[in-house]
Predict the structure.
Amino acid sequence: MPRPRGRPRRAGRRTLTRAIALRLLSQDALDQDQPAVGLSCVRQALEVSPRTPAMVQAFVAAQAAHVHAALGQRAPALTWLATADRLQGGARPDSDPFQTYRPAALHFKRAVVLGLLGDHEAAHAALDASLAARPAQQERAIMLTRVERARLYRLAGRAAEAAAELRRAQALNRGVHSPKAAREITRLGGA
């Protein structure tokens, strides 16, 4: 049976856009060290995400895990990670990139969450999986993965490994030109 045309489809696209926008606002709040705002945004995203494709739901669930980890709430963080895994595993491949959440991105988010929870070895394993799942042309994502690995090494007091990862990230950033990554590389390099 063909999909209904017109208004219902636009409403679906608005819901999809809203879920993703709220997820991005939640991440932005975390980046600005405002976890309460991040929690508010991700709760709103969770309210609308059940009406979106499974991959978008996985994306929002992974953000919920990140927010709860940032707040030091281990049990809900791990529950939301498991939910993201389940949703991603049951999702159909979709040709619309707006509706996808690549396995490499979920591995990366898992690493961030586990790092915040203090599970550094599991976080490094998730970063390894993320790097293995990324094509070489995704230089920005690979660079950010290197920065995250350096951050984890710093937290564990492993300065030599952190410095090596920062050098790799800095070399990649010469081609990517990410000001945010450059700031983080500088911050971690001076830590």
